[in-house]
Design brief:
Layout lengths: L14 H6 L7 H14 L2 E6 L7 E3 L6 E3 L6 E9 L6 E8 L4 E10 L2 E10 L7 E4 L2 E3 L1 H4 L21 E9 L9 E8 L10 E5 H7 L8 H9 L13 H11 L8 H14 L2 E6 L1 H4 L4 E3 L3 E4 L5 E10 L6 E9 L3 E10 L2 E9 L9 E3 L2 E3 L16 H5 L6 E8 L9 E8 L12 E5 H7 L8 H11 L2
Parallel strand pairs: 6-11, 18-23
Antiparallel strand pairs: 1-16, 2-3, 4-5, 4-13, 6-7, 6-9, 7-8, 7-12, 10-11, 14-15, 15-16, 16-17, 18-19, 18-21, 19-20, 19-24, 22-23
Length: 471
């Protein structure tokens, strides 16, 4: 277990950040003490195991699909993909199929007029460091319906129909299209005025404190980041840092200033790409995957080229989960990814260069993501003309241009040690405009407006949006 109390010293400390602590239920020092105490109070263990040792999971005799005996939770199946990409246009791969929609919910309440979020210290089997900060509720439908036969999901009543909590945001948002087929979760923020019993694994944190924690590696989990990205800027009270880049973010989020493209142009651009882009997805038995480029061993399904990702199995023990021990499959990426967002002040307004991207499991052909979105190691042997645009630019960016550089874990309930490096790079004034028709400059406010709809921003871009607001 990583002791992260010392990580507090690495977070930028400003006078205003210290001032907002006076308005918080819990100081940052007390938070780190509490977080480490929760790690010590609970026991966690994750061991890799052979597929044969999975309990309740098995490979179906006919299809070879890896499924749960209940028919719920998720399955690992095969997917054939055909696109019109110029390089590697067709492939087959394992994919997680999880049609049920889970709940990612944050309960908020005002203390002394200051909005606080009820967050939990939650262990997931794929987390690099065990505990991370999770939303109030982070549960699949199978979990909160207690298909596992374990304890109920804490605080789920605030997110059910009939709750007296006020809805501040409620929308379906996509998950990782590289490894999930058409996966979406409900991202919801609700506010209550009632007294809320506080479980020992939960704490109240202000949005300012959450912004500070998002500057730390592997602290705020993916599910928290995606929900936080959806919180309307009007509900947040920004830290007054006096920094010009911070001011540029706030102005771009608020919709002040000049925008290169109006909203109708952005929607038309993405719609046109979705209309002409070829993305044909066909579910196939997993046994076809292991007959075509992939290998099924006693402990892993992997690609013969040693790239991309593995499918593995783990045994889990966690003293503070609804079920204290279980086994399950996980997807394990071969390497870290890179999400780099290039930003530029155009006409005095901060713009982000986003791309329309199609992944194997994308539901609606293409979604907006960061300027660079890839696992760099997968392109080592790619022809120069097929390397992701701006990958080399982002990797070589001088430190004076880097506004954000943090490593975040991805969803630990389905992925093992998946992590991405998140970069924000402010480019030079003479940086070239849109390089081709899959890229477009947008303001942050325009991206926030798209979050009110489903399947417009990838989960990775939403993580970047939340992380940028931490600045």
């Amino acid at each position: 277990m990583v002791d992260i109390a010392s990580a507090a010293d690495t977070a930028p400390a400003t006078g205003s950040a210290l001032a907002v602590a006076d308005d918080a239920v819990m100081s940052m020092a007390d938070f780190h003490s509490w977080f480490n105490a929760r790690a010590r109070a609970n026991s966690f263990r994750v061991d890799r195991i052979p597929f044969a040792d999975l309990r309740g999971w098995d490979f179906e005799p006919d299809s070879g699909n890896l499924v749960h005996a209940s028919g719920r939770f998720f399955s690992v199946e095969g997917l054939r993909v055909r696109t019109d990409r110029p390089w590697v246009s067709e492939w087959i791969q394992p994919i997680i199929v999880q049609p049920e929609i889970g709940v990612l919910g944050i309960l908020v309440k005002r203390f002394g007029g200051v909005l606080h979020c009820l967050m939990q210290a939650k262990m997931e089997p794929g987390n690099i460091n065990g505990l991370q900060i999770s939303p109030t509720v982070q549960a699949t439908r199978s979990n909160y319906m207690q298909v596992h036969g374990g304890a109920g999901t804490k605080y789920i009543e605030y997110f059910r129909p009939g709750s007296r909590a006020r809805v501040l945001f409620d929308g379906l948002q996509s998950e990782q299209g590289s490894w999930f087929l058409h996966k979406r979760n409900r991202n919801i923020v609700v506010e209550t005025d009632e007294d809320v019993p506080l479980d020992e694994d939960f704490c109240w944190l202000t949005l300012s404190q959450m912004r500070r924690l998002m500057r730390l590696d592997h602290m705020v989990n993916m599910d928290s980041r995606t929900v936080l990205s959806c919180i309307p800027p009007a509900l947040t009270r920004p830290d007054d840092t006096g920094d010009s880049f911070s001011d540029a973010i706030l102005n771009s989020l608020s919709g002040h200033g000049h925008a290169v493209h109006d909203p109708a142009r952005i929607l038309s651009w993405l719609t046109e790409i979705r209309a002409r882009q070829e993305l044909v997805q066909r579910r196939v038995p997993l046994k076809e995957v292991v007959e075509d480029g992939w290998r099924l061993g006693p402990e892993v399904i992997d690609h013969r080229a040693g790239k991309y990702f593995d499918v593995m199995a783990v045994s889990v023990q966690a003293s503070n989960r609804e079920v204290t021990s279980w086994t399950q499959p996980l997807v394990a990426p071969k390497q870290s990814g890179l999400l780099a967002l290039l930003v530029k002040r155009i006409g005095g307004t901060l713009h982000a260069l986003v791309q329309a991207r199609s992944d194997a499991g994308t539901l609606n052909i293409a979604e907006l993501t960061a300027t660079v979105h890839c696992q760099p190691g997968n392109y080592v042997d790619a022809p120069a003309e097929h390397r992701p645009p701006y990958l080399d630019y982002a990797l070589a960016a001088p430190s004076c241009r880097v506004r954000l550089d943090v490593v975040h874990s991805e969803e630990g309930g389905r992925f093992y040690h998946a992590q991405n490096r998140y970069l924000v790079v402010e480019v030079e004034d003479d940086f070239a405009a849109e390089p081709d028709d899959r890229y477009l400059w947008t303001t942050l406010n325009q991206l926030m407006s798209l979050l009110s709809h489903s399947n417009y921003l990838t989960v990775e871009l939403r993580s970047l949006m939340a992380s940028m607001r931490s600045l």
